[in-house]
Design goal:
It comes from Ancylobacter amanitiformis. Keywords: Hydrolase. This is Aliphatic nitrilase. It is built from ten helices and eleven strands. The chain has a single domain, classed as Nitrilase/N-carbamoyl-D-aminoacid amidohydrolase (4-Layer Sandwich), CATH 3.60.110. Strand 7, helix 6 and strand 8 form a beta-alpha-beta unit. The radius of gyration is 20 Å and the shape is globular. Helix content is about 30%, strand content about 20%. Helix 2 (about 25-40) runs parallel beside helix 5, helix 2 packs parallel to helix 10 (about 350-360) and helix 5 runs parallel beside helix 10. By secondary structure, it is of the alpha/beta class.
Amino acid sequence: MAGKRIAEKRVVRVGAVQIAPDLDSLEGTLTRVLAALDEAAGKGAELVVFPETFVPWYPYFSFVLPPVLTGAEHLRLYENAVVVPGPVTEVVAASARRLGVVVVLGVNERDHGSLYNTQLVFDADGTLALKRRKLTPTFHERMIWGQGDGAGLKVVDTRVGRVGALACWEHYNPLARYALMAQHEEIHVAQFPGSLVGPIFAEQIEVTIRHHALESGCFVVNSTGWLTDEQIARISPEEKLRRALTGGCMTAIISPEGSHVVPPLTSGEGILIADLDMALITKRKRMMDSVGHYARPELLSLHLDNRPAVPMNLATQQAAPSFTSYGSATDETDGSGNRSPADADRAPDQRVAVLRGAAG
């Protein structure tokens, strides 16, 4: 079977979405996600990628406001954040299943009293193949999100191939990238916020994703967000700070040879569509396989602790707590399989009916 797969000629059509969120509500942003999914699938996309923490929105406010002034917006982000699994994931999973597409979505995940920068990979049958959290939030983000763990550094098999994902400046962590390379990712998904820092950020993104494609010998599908002028004015009360919320957009699709498959999208909204010739992976790795014939594991190797980080381990005679495939402890139960009252705040909203209705 392995030899047959290598001999197969596979072409995967992918879509990278550059889009603005709805800064007023989770429901509004989710509606935009579903519409973009329909549009991309209508163009034949089998994999659709959205920007970093796109749902409900990236916390741009934390980049331009001093911490003492961010309380109200931070709490509003909590109120609109995504519980995983929950109503939002049900809606997206239903859309992925209906359209038969693999979806990679960035969300602000709420887990009890903390928020996380989380990447979700839905397979084409609607199953949640991966939930991973950004390992180290960057600069201003550390006031917003908690840290992820090694359990999320995982490449998953999907209908379009082996998919790995990292968010933003995680791409500056060579060992994190190598962990995915060593698992033989075929399509690497990168996500950045967009509309941030200025044009130099777009240049840095391009260098980073093109280098990873070359080093890993894989395709890279990168999606960045977008803000309208009206949204920028709303986020920043000071005109001179609004420049920090422009530029930084580099939605792009890169081949294993480090070149753009299609011209990148650096401003405005849109969806890049490209066909990936998977034979290019072998063509690149024939020359340089960084985790195979070009590696020297007896000299240099990576140690990865892929155990989930949990705040408490119970040393009792009872069975140890089980863990989900997403890398977090399962909810405590009363022994009958029912959730305990302590888990009630994992579903703090009353949006189930509204969000399920959106899936229709």
